[in-house]
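Support request from a user on the community tier.

User writes: "When I paste my C-alpha cells into the form, the page sometimes reloads and wipes my input. The last time it worked, I copied everything first. Here is what I submitted, just in case something in the input itself triggers the reload:"
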C-alpha cells in the first residue's frame, strides 16, 4: 500500500476533526430510541450530502444510506442510530442528551453504542470521497485513485437495539441491496471482531384453572405449576451446546406473567426465557430441546414473533431468533482488516468475538454475508451512565474506514464468492 496514500488519509482524517465531532455532538442531542429514529436519520442524511456522496437516500425501513462509487461490488458500513432508553438520568454524570467533552472523551447517550460508530463510518466515507476526487497525493499531483469495481455504502441503521438485523434484512430482502461484505462499527476499541453469540426468546406456558382466591382448592394454581418448569429450564444450562470459541450457551428466565386478577387463582402462567446461542444452533433445535424437558411437566414452548414497527410506519415483525456467527480466520475480509491495521499502525490488531448481539446476526448469521467488526468505542461504556467515546480513537477509526476499501480491492480482485448468495453479483435496487 502506497505510503503517500496512508499519509494523505491520516492527514484528511485529522483535518476533518471539527466537522466529525460536531456531527457526533448533533447526533447525541437527538433522542433516537428504537422506532423513533426519524430526526437522527434526517441529520445523518444531511451529513452524507455534505460530504459529497454520489447518492443519498432512505430505504423502506427508514435507514439513512449514502453511496460513494458506482461499482457493482458493495462494501457496506453499518452503524446504528437508535439507542437504549435511559432508566434514571440522575445516575448520569452529565445529562444524557447534552454532549460534553472532557479531556479526550465525548460523553452522551449513544456515544459508544453506536453514534460514535456512525460518525466514524460517515467520515471514513468523507475521506474516501476526497481521495477519489483529488488523488492520493497532497495537491492531486498523481492520477486519482479508483475503486472501479466497488461501491462503499454507509448505513445509519435503525431498530438495532430491540430487533438487531431486522432493518438490515429489510434493506437486503425488501429493497434489494445485497453487499459483498459488511463492516460493523460497533464497540471494539480499535480491535477486530469476527463473530458473536446469538440469542433467541422462548415463551414457556402452563395452564391452570381459575377459582376465587377465597376458595383456592377449587382451582389449579398455574404459578405453582410453573415452579418445577422453571427449575427444569435452569437445570438445562449444564447440557447446552458448547463452542470452542464462544464456550457454552446459556439460558435464563427473565420475565413471568399471569392474569392481572389479584383475587383469583391464576388460570395460566407464562415465562420468558432468554437463550444465548452458539453458531450453528437453529430455531427447531432450540425448541426441540426445551420441549423435551417442559412438555412432560405440562408446559408448552414457542419462539414468539418480535413486534417491529419502523419510524416510517412499516411493520417488520418476525421470529425472535437471532443466530450467532463466526468469520473464518483465513477469510479475505479478515485479512483485509488486518492489513489495514498494519498499514496504518505497523502491526495487526487484536482479534476477538463479541459477547453481545449486533446486526451481524442477520448479515452473517442468516444471510451468509461475510461480516467483520471494527469501531472506536469501548464495550465498558455501552449501555452505561458514563457512556463516552475517545475522540482520538474516533479519528483513528475514520482513517481505518477510509483505507479499508483500497486494501480490500487489492486483496480481492475476483468477483464475489458463492457465499454471497449463489454467486450473484451485489447490486443496487432499482429505484
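"...and here is what came back when it finally went through:"
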Amino acid at each position: 500500500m502506497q505510503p503517500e496514500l496512508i499519509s494523505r488519509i491520516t492527514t484528511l482524517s485529522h483535518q476533518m476533526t471539527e466537522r466529525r465531532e460536531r456531527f457526533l455532538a448533533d447526533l447525541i442531542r437527538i433522542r433516537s430510541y428504537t422506532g423513533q429514529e426519524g430526526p437522527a436519520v434526517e441529520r445523518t442524511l444531511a451529513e452524507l450530502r455534505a460530504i459529497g456522496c454520489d447518492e443519498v437516500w432512505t430505504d423502506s425501513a427508514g435507514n439513512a444510506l449514502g453511496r460513494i462509487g458506482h461499482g457493482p461490488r458493495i462494501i457496506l458500513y453499518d452503524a446504528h442510530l437508535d439507542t437504549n432508553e435511559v432508566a434514571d438520568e440522575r445516575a448520569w454524570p452529565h445529562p444524557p442528551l447534552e454532549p460534553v467533552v472532557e479531556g479526550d472523551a465525548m460523553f452522551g447517550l449513544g456515544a459508544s453504542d453506536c453514534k460514535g460508530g456512525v460518525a466514524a463510518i460517515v467520515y471514513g466515507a468523507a475521506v474516501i470521497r476526497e481521495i477519489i476526487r483529488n488523488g492520493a497525493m497532497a495537491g492531486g499531483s498523481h492520477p486519482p485513485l479508483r475503486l472501479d469495481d466497488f461501491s462503499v455504502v454507509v448505513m445509519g441503521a435503525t431498530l438495532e437495539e430491540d430487533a438487531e438485523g431486522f432493518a438490515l434484512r429489510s434493506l437486503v430482502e425488501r429493497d434489494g441491496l445485497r453487499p459483498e461484505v459488511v463492516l460493523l462499527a460497533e464497540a471494539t476499541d480499535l480491535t477486530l471482531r469476527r463473530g458473536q453469540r446469538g440469542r433467541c426468546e422462548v415463551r414457556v406456558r402452563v395452564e391452570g384453572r381459575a377459582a376465587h382466591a377465597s376458595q383456592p382448592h377449587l382451582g389449579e394454581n398455574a404459578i405453582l405449576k410453573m415452579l418445577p418448569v422453571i427449575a427444569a429450564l435452569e437445570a438445562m444450562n449444564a447440557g447446552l451446546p458448547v463452542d470452542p470459541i464462544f464456550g457454552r450457551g446459556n439460558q435464563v428466565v427473565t420475565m413471568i406473567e399471569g392474569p392481572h386478577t389479584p383475587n383469583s387463582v391464576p388460570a395460566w402462567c407464562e415465562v420468558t426465557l432468554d437463550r444465548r446461542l452458539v453458531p450453528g444452533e437453529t430455531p427447531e433445535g432450540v425448541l426441540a430441546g426445551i420441549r423435551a424437558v417442559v412438555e412432560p411437566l405440562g408446559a408448552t414452548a414457542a419462539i414468539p414473533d418480535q413486534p417491529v414497527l419502523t419510524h416510517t410506519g412499516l411493520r417488520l415483525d418476525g421470529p425472535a431468533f437471532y443466530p450467532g456467527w463466526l468469520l473464518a480466520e483465513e477469510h479475505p475480509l479478515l485479512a483485509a482488516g488486518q492489513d489495514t491495521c498494519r498499514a496504518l499502525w505497523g502491526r495487526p490488531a487484536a482479534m476477538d468475538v463479541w459477547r453481545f448481539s449486533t446486526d451481524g446476526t442477520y448479515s452473517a448469521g442468516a444471510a451468509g454475508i461475510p461480516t467483520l467488526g471494527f469501531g472506536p468505542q469501548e464495550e465498558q461504556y455501552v449501555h452505561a451512565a458514563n457512556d463516552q467515546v475517545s475522540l482520538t480513537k474516533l479519528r483513528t477509526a475514520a482513517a481505518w474506514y477510509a483505507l479499508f476499501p483500497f486494501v480490500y480491492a487489492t486483496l480481492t480482485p475476483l468477483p464475489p464468492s458463492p457465499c454471497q448468495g449463489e454467486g450473484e453479483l451485489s447490486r443496487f435496487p432499482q429505484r
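Agent notes: The reload is a front-end session timeout and is unrelated to the input. Residues 198-306 form a domain with the Alpha-Beta Plaits fold (CATH 3.30.70.360). The chain has two domains: 3-196+324-420, 198-306. Escalated to web team.
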